[in-house]
Amino acid sequence: MNITILTGSDELNFSLDRYLRFVLGGKVKQIFTARLGEPESLQFEMLSSHLWIAEAFNPEDIENPEGFRTVKKFAGKARALLLFVSLVPQNFPRAGQFWLTLPCPTALYDKIKEVVDSPCPTLNDYQHLETLWPLLKGGPSRHHHGHG
């Protein structure tokens, strides 16, 4: 299985890479890492990843759902685990089919296993998240109108 990790920090990428190799062992063929805010870090080989683990928002631009937008492009084609590490709205579920709010009582290993064993999230699944948290619909532009 090929996995892509997309977060806002090299440290988090490295930690997740080591953790995944430890808990998934021989199932892991290759792990790619990329940084939010650095589109040039995305490589062509990542397009074939079976699993994407991504921070939903760029921590350096907390209203930019860059990770969410990237993973949504693979709706129906790849499994995904979105990580929400910023403040989430009160009505937003702490965890769901393919996302987790950190810190969370659910063990990361259990969530990864659940995601790997589940079907790929569909476009409807992503759109449902956008209705729960409209900020996820946001584009990459800053200080422009057009939310909605």
What would you note in describing this structure?
The protein is built from four helices and six strands, in the order βαββαβββαα. The chain is α/β, with parallel strands linked by helices and 148 residues long. The chain has a single domain (2-137), classed as 3-Layer(aba) Sandwich (Rossmann fold). It is globular and about 40 Å long. The chain has helices spanning 10-24, 66-72, 108-116, 123-132; strands at 2-7, 30-35, 51-55, 79-84, 95-96, 99-101. Strand 3, helix 2 (66-72) and strand 4 (79-84) form a beta-alpha-beta unit.
Brief descriptors of the model:
148 residues, alpha/beta, Rossmann fold, 6-stranded mixed sheet, 6 strands, 19% strand, disordered C terminus
Strand percentage lies at 15-25%
CATH class: Alpha Beta
- The rounded distance between the terminal residues' Cα atoms is 37 Å
* CATH architectural label: 3-Layer(aba) Sandwich
Kindly report the name of the CATH homologous superfamily: Response regulator
- Portion of residues in helices? 25-40%
* Strand tally: 6
Net shape: globular
Please give the order of strands in the largest beta sheet: 2-1-3-4-6-5
For the record, the count of structural domains works out to 1
> Uncertain segments of ≥5 residues (pLDDT<50)?
143-148
CATH fold name: Rossmann fold
Secondary structure class reads alpha/beta
Largest sheet: 6 strands, mixed
Order of helices and strands: EHEEHEEEHH
